[in-house]
Structures are given as C-alpha cells and as structure tokens.
Amino acid sequence: xxxxxxxxxxxxxxxxxxxxxxxxxxxxxxxxxxxxxxxxxxxxxxxxxxxxxxxxxxxxxxxxxxxxxxxxxxxxxxxxxxxxxxxxxxxxxxxxxxxxxxxxxxxxxxxxxxxxxxxxxxxxxxxxxxxxxxxxxxxxxxxxxxxxxxxxxxxxxxxxxxxxxxxxxxxxxxxxxxxxxxxxxxxxxxxxxxxxxxxxxxxxxxxxxxxxxxxxxxxxxxxxxxxxxxxxxx
Length: 234
What we know:
about 230 residues; mainly alpha; 8 helices; globular
C-alpha cells in the first residue's frame, strides 16, 4: 500500500524525495564520487574514513532511490542503517574480522536490492526524463558495485581467488583493486592486470561480463521504445 505522508516520520520525509524528479541523481552522484575518489585516496587513515563516508552516501541515497511503498522504505532503512553500523564497527574494531565479512555481505545485499528497485522503476516509468536516465546509468554502476562486494566476499573466503600481476593483491588495497576489477570486467574492457585464479572467481567474471552486456542491450531497447511511444502520443 502506498505510504501516506500524513505522519511526520523519517519514512514520510523520505517519500518527498522519492517522488521528486531528481531522486536518482543523488545515487548517481554518490556512485561517481566513490568510483572516481576511491582510487586516489590513501588506503589508511583519513583516506579510509573518506571511503567509508562515500559508501555511506551511496547507502543513504540508495534509500532515497528505493520504491515509495511504506514497507519497502522501512526495510531498506533498517538494512541500510545496520550495514553502516557494522561497517564502522569493523573499521574501529579490526580485532573482529568477522564484522567486515558480515558488513560486506550486507552491502552486497543492499546494493543488489537497490539495483533491482531502480530497474523496476525505470521499466514502469512512462516517459524518458533526466531522472530516468540518471537511474539507468546508476543501475549499471550498481551492478558493478554489487560485483565488487561479491568479489570481496570471495577473496576473503578464499584468499588468492584473484591475483594481480601473478601475485596476491595487497590487503590494504583490496576494496579499490576489486572495484576496479569489477567495473573493468562489467564493461568488458578486460585489461588483465587483475585476473580470477579459482573457478568461482571465473564464474563471477563471466556473470559480470554478461550482466553488463545484457543490461545495456535491454536498457537501450527499453528507453528507445519509451521515447518513441512518448513522441507518438504527443
């Protein structure tokens, strides 16, 4: 049931953003800041905290980009806030490595759900607006970010699942390296400087490459169809 904005709750305030024509811009901006800023930031100290803040921006803008159903808003808020809490605890408490694994798993789940939500909203949109185009681009980048967390979980579960230049990836640079690997694989550029070394990692590589091509093919057909239909109605 659609949420009624009568109560002054956090969810009702979010509804105002979720019904705006710029809601997908926020998550697109958050993703661009993370993707562009992460490689040039130091892996430790202030740089590590800045990356966490950029991930926080992705989570919060992802909540804004979610579907406007009341139940979905509350579920995404709960999942997003739990993810942020565990992520910061894992940074402040390195003596508990299991927290990092749980945080990455929650990040992966949250980003995957937001990706699905945005794709559904784009498919249900009646017109091709600037907001829809921002959502379409954000959906593509979110697939790459989901691949990043899947690769992180795989590498943490099986150290050496991915190799760089024939050797192990620097553990302090793991997130940056695997985000780069995920986006390069998604776009099928395939430089080969980071490669999968185990069957599960190769399967993930194939999944990312196919997902990127299928997404772009279907998305272009969908958006062109909507644009032509809107032009015909006018």
